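Minutes, project check-in
Item: structure for the 266-residue chain
Input as provided by the requester:
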Amino acid sequence: MSLGQQLVPHLPFLRRYARALTGSQGHGDAYVRATLEAIVEAPDQFPRDVDPRMGLYRTFQAIWASTNIDIDGEVGNPVHAPETIASARLARVTPLSRQALLLTAMEGFSPEDAGYLIDASPEDVDSLVAEALAEIESQTRAEVLIIEDEPIIAMDLETIVRDLGHDVSGVAVTREEAVTQALAQRPGLVLADIQLADDSSGIDAVKDILAEFNVPVIFITAFPERLLTGERPEPTFLITKPFQRSTVKAAIAQALFFDQATVPAN
């Protein structure tokens, strides 16, 4: 099996990580493209002493550490990059701590593997994750709308949201309910399942909501590969079912981090 064939199954999940790390589909996918271009240009430099997924993420981390993306989603030289919203966001939390949190909580890497990816010891990774979690505790609280038709999952999400110190503005099970609740009490975050009770779509519900006002959105799906192709407008934040509580917490914190970073300081 060629190297390309070995890497293909892992690309959707690298896109998920890159989008969550940058807070943007365009920026995240640009980093993934740059990673693949680097592998094609220098295949002999691809790490062969680890499994393909580890090698892919390791190459991505090298690209992330050495380049920046401007506001249009292009890869460029960070030394000469102008001040942008993206660079302002990165200053809000130590970048390495966010990488450690996302690699472990969202991507499922062990502290040892995450340490390999970011050139840190497992103990350092644990410390970085603790640092990121401490930053999460200081985040502004938000009203969260949950769009989920499975009662047990909705209850679990509600518990996670409240444990983080946020409030739940409502739980909707259909597209119509979601839009009605969103317009009645504008939430600061939306958690949306893809398939809803009446065969309506959480994606369509979110489109309706975003047509009225801007709000960060996290989608929840059992089939993430369908929304991580990089071929069309797709979610920036995506959680895979069945999910771990730590994954949901990391996604919520990251989505709110980028949303709050766009609000000008008084």
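Outcome recorded: The chain is about 55% helix and 10% strand.
No further action items on this chain.
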